[in-house]
Amino acid sequence: MKKLLFLLSIVLVGCNNTTTDWDNYQLKGNVEFVKLSFYDADSKFGEIVKGDLDYLGITTIEFNESGYITSTSEYYEDGDLYSKDIYSYKNDKLDNVIKYDSKGDLSYKTIYNWDADNLQSVIHYNEDGEETFKSISEYENDNLKSYSYYRNGELVSKEIITKNNGDYVLESVSYDKDGKEIGTIINEWKNKQIVKRRFISDEENSYSIFHNEKGLAIKFENCYVTQNAIYTSEEGIYYYEYEFDDNDNWIKCIVYK
Fold first, then answer.
1. CB 108 within 8 Å of CB 122
2. Local structure of 13: helix, strand or coil
3. CA separation for the pair 176, 159 (Å, rounded)
4. What is the H or E stretch that residue 24 is in?
5. What does the DSSP 8-state code read for residue 23?
6. How many Å apart are CA 42 and CA 166, to the nearest integer?
7. From the CB of residue 214, how many other CB atoms can be counted at a distance below 10 Å?
8. What are phi and psi of 141, to 5 degrees?
9. Least crowded by CB within 10 Å, which of 99, 110, 130, 247?
10. Which of 110, 79, 113 is nearest to 97 (CA)?
């Protein structure tokens, strides 16, 4: 059975906890900094230990005192920076994200426009400040329609999101520019926690992700994804086993294929 190993390092700060990105990452307490390291897993004397660090094996995430992400950084296995994203906010709403490459040069910028609590548009700009991509949202009852365009105004895709009482996403259906359905996401919820997410692109290409009562992924079925932004090239069924610290945050995850 193939094994992968993740180690999570968490630093806590003293401040009042609120919802936001802390909840999205299933973090408990006032977390300031997270370091995620991804290794091959070796077996030694019957125990699973760290093997080689992955090529892009380290990701760090910083949060502000309100629980919003302020930056994410990716590093090569030798410790050199690969890329860095800086997040800015207005009135507790994400205003923009700026991505830099390993040399510190601008890669692209994303602007978020809001009307109260409703996201109206997301616009991407390249390093020269030219608009390259735009997503526009429309709201109708518990449905959200999102339209994506290239900079020449050509429609790329459309997505219709159905929510339950405006809170929980039940289904998301994507269409190509000609209106053909190309993919569906179906979510199942229990006690305000997602327990299963199924992705369907066609009858022969679908996969599912199962979650535990903490909201953590515990099983990936028929897919390549393993954890967060880390991917594996082998399709199959993956099982997740966690260890937690005294604050109920996971600090070690072993993935079995």
1. no
2. coil
3. 9
4. helix 21-24
5. H
6. 45
7. 14
8. 55, -125
9. 130
10. 110
Task: From residue 86, give the alpha-carbon distance in Å to each of 60, 64, 74, 160.
Answer: 12, 12, 12, 29
| Single-letter code of the amino acid located at 193 | Q
Both structure tokens of 11:
């630093």
Token digits for 239? 């099982």
Q: What is the identity of the amino acid at 1? A: M
Torsion of CA 158, 161, 162, 164, to 10 degrees: -170
For residue 248, the one-letter residue type is D
Question: What does pTM read for this prediction?
Answer: 0.83
237 and 225 in contact (C-beta within 8 Å)? no
* Residue 79 near residue 65, CB atoms below 8 Å: no
The token pair that represents 51 in the structure block: 């093997």
18: which DSSP letter? -
Q: What is the C-alpha separation between 232 and 12, in angstroms, rounded?
A: 30
pLDDT tens string, the chain, 257 residues long: the values are: 455 555 555 554 444 434 678 888 888 888 999 999 988 888 888 888 888 888 778 999 999 999 999 999 999 988 899 999 999 999 889 999 999 999 999 999 999 999 988 899 999 999 999 999 999 999 987 788 999 998 778 899 999 999 876 567 899 999 999 999 989 999 998 887 889 989 888 766 788 889 998 888 899 888 765 554 445 556 788 888 999 999 899 999 888 88
